[in-house]
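Input record, target 12 of the design panel.
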């Protein structure tokens, strides 16, 4: 049998204002540093922002003289990873909100949502609301913000309640 898969997970990019502050935030969520840079675009976590080489800058759709710093973090040894990129001297817009089009949030799953929200709140993480019960009690959810306002959905799933929805699939 042949594998017709064309793609597999790589990473999700999150542009940040302050790389160290964002690394600290994502460590609170359980991420660890995987690579102290993004070598194929010429960036590292060095204190001084590096220029993004011409071909990489063009492929990414940023100006040719763009400088930055970056790293790749992982939640476990699997995929996707997250790529945190700090671009120097760039006009940046606020991140998208849940009502907007495009990628607006990433989701992380936990077995103790209430406990994690309590822990993260004590560590200064901003939440949109306290944990809420999802539709048909299939999951509980809460959404927090990273230091730049990127939305992170935290989810506790009750798979035993999903059986009726999954019958016939």
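The sequence produced for target 12 reads:
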């Amino acid at each position: 049998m042949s594998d017709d898969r064309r793609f597999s997970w790589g990473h999700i990019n999150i542009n940040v204002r302050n790389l160290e502050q964002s690394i600290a935030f994502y460590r609170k969520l359980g991420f660890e540093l995987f690579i102290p840079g993004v070598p194929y675009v010429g960036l590292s976590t060095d204190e001084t922002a590096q220029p993004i080489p011409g071909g990489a800058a063009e492929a990414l759709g940023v100006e040719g003289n763009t400088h930055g710093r970056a790293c790749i973090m992982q939640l476990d040894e699997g995929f996707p990873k997250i790529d945190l990129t700090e671009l120097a001297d760039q006009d940046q817009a606020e991140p998208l909100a849940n009502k907007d089009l495009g990628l607006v949030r990433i989701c992380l799953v936990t077995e103790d949502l209430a406990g994690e929200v309590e822990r993260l709140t004590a560590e200064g993480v901003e939440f949109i609301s306290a944990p809420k019960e999802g539709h048909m009690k299939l999951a509980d959810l809460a959404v927090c913000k990273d230091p730049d306002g990127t939305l992170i959905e935290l989810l506790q799933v009750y798979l035993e309640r999903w059986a009726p929805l999954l019958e016939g699939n």
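DSSP finds four helices and twelve strands in the chain.
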